[in-house]
């Protein structure tokens, strides 16, 4: 028993450091007799290295029995809008390209990813969302940008 409790604590510690989505709301898109309805969820992600920037992502979430037990594979489509919600600050220098968030869309293989890119010449942060699988991904993607005031230089690694 002690062995398992240590394992669970280790996993909880690892997951606790990951960026978590805050669900803003959802709308039902299809009624399901058993289990939750199919829906579109809107989630907010605060960029962990850039204070004052929040990304809002809308995506489909499969309901029904498979959705209730976590076996459903959600659609690859997602929409993203990142906005300046406060003064932009940087906790550390940013790489030119970095995965900021990822979320599981199926039991094993499919993930929704958000990547931040720095557009140095325009002093802007560009965010790209897409999904991928272990073998092949989806060409469906969405992009948004946050302009940073010219008086605030984006620190690069």
From TrEMBL:
Keywords annotated in UniProt: Signal
InterPro entries linked: Uncharacterised_CreA (IPR010292)
Signal peptide positions (record): 1-21
Pfam families: CreA
Statement: the UniProt record of this protein carries the keyword Transmembrane: no
Stretches that traverse the bilayer: none
CC terms in the record's Gene Ontology section: cytosol
Keyword Signal attributed: yes
Protein name, entry field: CreA family protein
